[in-house]
Design goal:
Layout: E1 8-12, H1 23-41, E2 45-53, H2 55-66, E3 74-80, E4 89-96, H3 97-103, H4 112-127, H5 135-153
Helix pairs in contact: 1-4, 3-4, 4-5
Length: about 160
């Protein structure tokens, strides 16, 4: 991302109280992860919308977008700018809040909020072209996303 450039991030949906995170923090973290992700690939980003969805919507999107059954943690969609917009990335990240609530207790020391932010980081990583379709890609993405989450958590 160019120095001083700002990625527009919107967050649609609600954060259930059980997540323990406010919508504004999800937006701020998404902006942070988008900056890290775009600098990794040197791309120009314009806008990303993060949708906080539940299992039913995740399942429908998973089927329609990916052709797969069942809900999932994150679904991403990237779009090219349409002229006369300047070139750059526009994207959507659909994050399953129900999945975050279910998965967090299975990870020692993880809160539902941390799990949700891992999904947001994962979505931003996908939007920048990262791929987890094989074990090497999955491991590279996971290492990067955990590093991003730790940077977010330890920011000054």
């Amino acid at each position: 991302m160019a120095r001083g450039a700002k990625i527009r991030i919107e967050v649609h949906g609600t954060t259930p109280k059980a997540l323990g995170i406010a919508k504004g923090e999800v937006r701020a973290a998404a902006e942070f992860f988008a900056g890290l992700s775009s600098s990794r690939v040197g791309g120009t980003w314009h806008e990303v919308v993060v949708h906080l969805v539940h299992d039913a919507e995740s399942e429908m999107l998973h089927r329609e977008v990916m052709g797969l059954e069942g809900s999932t943690d994150v679904i991403t969609q990237a779009y090219d700018a349409i002229p006369p917009e300047p070139p750059g990335l526009l994207g959507e990240v659909f994050v399953n809040v129900d999945q975050a609530l279910r998965a967090a207790p299975r990870r020692r020391g993880w809160s539902p909020a941390r799990e949700l932010l891992l999904y947001v980081a994962h979505g931003m990583d996908h939007l920048s072209g990262a791929d987890d379709h094989d074990e090497a890609g999955y491991l590279a993405m996971r290492r990067r996303e955990l590093r991003w989450c730790n940077l977010w958590r330890n920011r000054v």
